[in-house]
Structure formats: C-alpha cells, structure tokens
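Dear colleagues,

As part of the handover before I leave the project, I'm documenting each prediction I ran so the next person doesn't have to rerun anything. This entry is a single chain, and its sequence is reproduced below.
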Amino acid sequence: MGKIRVFAGSMLLVFVLTFGLIGTCSASNRSFGQVTPGFQGSQMNFIDNAGLFLLSNNSNFAFGFVTTTDVTLFLLVVVHMSSSRVIWSANRGAPIVFSDKFVFEVNGNAYLASGESKVWSTNTARKGATALVLQNSGNLVLVGEDEKSLWESFGNPTDTLLSGQNFVNGMKLVSDPSSNNLTYSLQVESGDLILKVGFPTPQPYWSMGKENRKTINKVGGDVYSTSLVSNSWKFLDQKGGLLWQFIFSDISDTNITWAAVLGSDGLITFYNLLPGGTSDAESTKIPNDPCSTPESCDSYYVCYSDNRCQCPAVLSSRPNCKPGVVSTCSNSSSSSNDPMQLIDVGDKLNYFALGFVPPFSKSDLNGCKDSCLKNCSCRALFFGTSSGNCFQFDQIGSLQSSENSAGFVSFIKVPSDEGNSTGDGGSGGGKNVAVIVVIIVVITVIVIAGLIYLAFRYRRGKKRSPEPLDETSEEDNFLENLSGMPVRFTYKELEDATNNFNVKLGQGGFGSVYQGALKDGSRIAVKKLEGIGQGKKEFRAEVSIIGSIHHIHLVRLKGFCAEGTHRLLAYEFMSNGSLEKWIFKKNKEGPMLDWNMRINIAIGTAKGLAYLHEDCDVKIVHCDIKPENVLLDDNFQAKVSDFGLAKLMNREQSNVFTTMRGTRGYLAPEWITNYAISEKSDVYSFGMLLLELIGGRKNYDPSESSEKAHFPTYAFKMIEERKLSDIFDPKLTIDDEDERVFIAIKVALWCIQEDMYLRPSMSKVIQMLEGLCVVPQPPNSSQMGSRLFSNFFKSISEGGTSSGDCKSDGYISNIQLSGPR
C-alpha cells in the first residue's frame, strides 16, 4: 500500500509539472485581434512579452499589464505600442501584484482579480459575450452575437480620448492626482464641455463655450457629444449637427491617430500617436493661459504672466502664505468659536472660477462681507464692483494677477488679531509682530551670554583637573573582558605596521582598509573604523563574533585595537584579492583561472558557507555572497569575507521574516516576495556565483543578445538542449570527459531554484561538487521565475546594493560589517 501511495504521488507530481509547464508556455503566446471566453493570464505568465497578451491586428495597440513607479505593482491597460503611452486603464487606483490575474470567464464576464477580490469587472455575465476584441482604433470591445457591443473602453474612458472616440453626455475624464492630491475632470454638462477641479465643492475653470479659439458653425444648441476628427475637436448636438470645432494642430492628415490627455496639472494636451514612433505633443493646450488653472501656483499665491508665483502682501507675514483658517464649520475645530476678519487683497486679482459659477448673492460690499463672516464655509469672497455680484468660495486655489482692475475686490478670511474683526486689512498685526521680534532678540542675547559663560567655566575646570591618560572607556573595558579574543594591538603598533596607513587597499563598511606588515613579517589588512557611535557598535560586533570564528575557508580576524577613540581591525592579508577581478578581468591578456582552480574555489566557498550555516554555535546567514566577497590567498584558496554583515539566528530557528540586504543579481526571489529569508537565500547567491565561475561572465550582461543577456535563463535552455559548451567560459580548455563541468552546471541550477525548498543545503552542495552523490537533472520550472526576477535584479557592472536589513532573533543589528577588500 505504501509503494502504491509513493507511485501515485510521483505520478501526480509528474502530471502537475508537465501540464503546469504546458499551460505556462501556452499562456505566454500573444493573441492578435481577440481572446475568447476561458482565457486568463497574469503579468508572470506574459513576462516574456512585457506583460502584454493581446495585440490589435495592426499591432499599434496592446492590452495587458504594465508596471507602475513601484516595479512590484501593475496596471491592466490598453497601451499605444510605439510610444508606450497608456490610453486606458482598468485599475488606476488599485494596482495589483505580478501573480494577480485577468480572467475572461466562460459566462462572458471579464474581470481583474486581486487575491480573492475583484478589482474591476465588465459586469457582463450571461449576456452572450463571445470575444474580447482590441480594435485597430485602440478600442477594447466585449462583443456578443452579431458583433454587438456589450462593453467597450471607449465608453468608459479614464484620462484620454482617441480619434474617433465619441465622448457623450454622462461620460467623464478624470486625471491622475496632482502632487497636492487634487484631480481634474472633463465632462459634457449643461450643453457645454467643462473642466473642473476636484475641490470638496468642485470648481469649474474652463469651458468650450467660452473658448475664444473655437470656430462656431452653428449658433445656439447644446453640446451632446464630442470627438477628435483629423486635427480638430468637433462638438455636436443631439441630432448630430456640428456646433463648434476646435483646431489644435496644423497637421490635417486623416490617417493620424490623436490623443487628448487630461493631465495631473489640469491641462488638456494633444498628442500625435505616430505608428512606429514616439507621441509628439502639440503646442496647443487647454486652457491657453497657464495662470487660469487651479494649481498654476500654490493656494493663495498669485500667478503672474511671466510664470512667477508670489504671496499677496497681506499674507506674506503668515506661515506658508496661508490664512490659518482650516474649517470654521466643524464643531471640533479649535477655530470654530474664534472671531474672524476679512483682509483686503485688492482689486487687481482675478480667480479662475469667477466666469463659470453663479454668484452667491447680489448685494453691496458690506452685505457681501457680513454674509461671508457669518458663513462658516466661506474662506474668500470676490465682489463685483459694477455688478454687485457676491462670490464666495469654500476653498481657494491659485489667484491670477491683473495689471488693471479686474472688476472685483477680493477679501480673504483670517483669524482676527486680538479680537479685532473690523476687516480693514489687519493693520493691528504689525504692532504684535514688532513686540514678538523684540522679545525674541532679548531671549537670544540672554541665551548666547549664558552659553559663553558656561563654556568659560568648563574650560577653567578642565585645566584644573586633567583627565588621567590611562583611563579607559566603557567600550574598552567590555573588550578587555571578552574571552578568546584575537591579539590586542596598540594604535601605535598598527600605525607603524601600515607605515602610517600609507597603502590603501579599499573602502569597507564604516572605514578604509590598509595594507600592513607585523614585526614578525606577516602581512595584514588593517581596517580603520572612521567615526564613533555606530562605528563602535560595528567594531564590538565584529570582534565578538568574527573573532571567535575560525575556518580555513573564512577570512580570519588576527587582532584589533581599542585605544581611546581608535577602533581598528587586523585581518589576514589575501594577496590575490577578490574572485571578481579574476573572472571578470578587464585585461584579457593576463593570467586566468583554469577549470581546476575554479572548481576548487567553488568547493572552498561552499565549505566556508556550510560552516557558517551548520557548524557555528549560532547559525550565520551571510546575506551578500558575490565574487567581490570571495578572497583568494597566495595559493588561490578561496576564503569568504564580510560574513560580519550577516545577522545571526538561533540554531532552532529556520526562518527570518524580514527584508534583507545584498547585491542585485545575487538576491534570492524571496527577497521581493516577502517570504522567509534563511540560509537557503545564501544557497541561491552561491548558485549565481557558481554560474559566473563556470561562464566567466556576469549573470546579467546587457551587451549580450536578448537570449544570452540573462545567463541563468540561457543556462536552463542550453542544459535542456544538451549544449553545455555554450554555457562555460569559451576561454577555458576543458576535457570533454570531465564530468565535473556538467555536475557543476546542474548544481548551480539546483541552487537558483525559485522554490527555496528545492534548493540543497550547502553541505549537500559540497557532496555533489566533490562527486560523493548523484546530481539529478534540475527542474526547468524555474525558468519562468528566473526571467521574472531578472527584471528586478539586473546586475549592473558595478553591482548595486539593496536597502534594508537581514535581522534575526539570535543577533539583531542594523550595522554593516565588512572584512578587507
């Protein structure tokens, strides 16, 4: 019975791997024109096609996933291919992760799922949908029988209109949020096309009816629909009669696709979507005057025609040019019962909404001011001097300058000074400011005099009682009491050993590394910690942890100095430097590492890591295995350095749920998927290093062809095709009968499996590399994952370092510790 269960389990695993891979491969093929019910896919499935799974028949537009500014989040969009301009989005406000799916159900409903919830849906279940079609116009259409449209993106626009797209009464364009988290909207309303800013009470700031650049074809009539036709924006009544047209370009080619985009700045910009080219913006914008948008300057600032923003004089003494009134309508507001006043801003200001909103009331100036003071939502008023119209606003954007009188007098509500609410401009505020300035000056003089006196007393006291020269700090006492410590040097001894720190080997964490020699002739690398505070903690951590660890394949700490404020570490000197300079040599003519040396370096590195993982008193995860951190001695024996960077775990603890630090290109997939960080993360990094040893190249090289650029993906493909000679370094001479090459490649591919539980331990890696056990064929399922994660961890030539820390319960530290370079 047990054998039957094992056999059944094995067959199930084969079935899942086989058909899972078939499904993955088939899903990665792009469709042209349409997809049918039953289709589903995610960004992960279509990583090879940049996340795009449906192309229009003319290949100008695509439907699929694109990344946001956060590379781990994605939007489902229709995009113009050559310009990469997004013209429609299903989930602008709710981005998803790479494993979330778009699903076209058999019942005809199309939706975007995030986990167990639906982010977006066409709501077309059981309506007879037969296909989802991406038309050559860029319109995404869900069609039913007889090609009848059940849903389309043109009928549900986001922030963009395309040529031929009807924008009718009831539709709305909404911009992306601005830096102040304001959005703008465009819609057909009251027989006109109107732009509004999304204040709590929306305020219009432009309409086509008042646009003086339009051409009038028919007087009278209400706008019902609009569309971009050639180089003009046409406005039609409900019967299809042409009322107005707005010419936005001199290019009148009817074959050009145009896009009108409502930007986060509140402007409508027109783009020419050229096939096979970029999207060029026309100089014509709506509105024409940049000062007529709500955020041309900050709130209450005045926008001038020369693109200058300036705070009105009456608000210049207030913080950030703000009146200090948040909301006087809320009972919880601290200012709800405070007296208010109106300060006069003058008659040479205009406001963008004045030409588009009805007056609050009609009265004289005093009546308008009294009404505003009694209205808790009124923050500013504009009074028409000739019309008697009183305009009140509950929120104010940018103001506009006018050289002559704008026909309005303007007042802004501010807290009253000392209960004075006369509204004459707050003239009493100047006296208060003068008093405050005098008080500040007096206090400043007293404080400075006190500091000078204390400094004088301190210096006199210091001269009388000099500090004993042999006094040691608390940190020094700590180091003296550590058992099993390396040799303790004086600062003078290390200064002499390095010839006054003359030969600098490199820059390490929190200090520089210098070459030196002790009196017995042995060479050392001295790390001089620069600075105190964080440097002291780093020093104590390195001495207490690294100093107690001894292994032939780990760089050894020979001594330290803890004298006064000086903190230095003395390591054994590694004459041949780092592995990185040998396998990525810039000088191709010099000596190189042969295959025997490379495999011995790999085994030595593996033994050093295995000791850290399994044989120390506490488990140590290195977190930054890469060629730069593998050093070579006189005999090219590998020694792992910088394991002081690792954070420690209790032996019983197998996982650490946190982010980690390391170098792009060597980081395991769990680093971005928020899975546990463990010693298996080091195994992944070792696999990348082993591949680079075998191939003599970096794991990502943009100078290679697209097939070869990501080396792990290429290696998976070549081992599947049995083309091993295409994987290893072409400069190497390798015996065809040397099985160690094939074994090393398989070990490397096992180490970089996406699933951490499939990766071997470092002790198992040693056994496989030394030929002590059989190495099975690694599964190919990680190709999808390796392609996905290569997008996140493309290793640049100098190697970037990620942010974050690798922490644990066994030893927690935010300090970067490093050995000699």
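The chain has a mean pLDDT of 80. The CA atoms of residues 380 and 412 lie 4 Å apart.

All the best with the project,
I.
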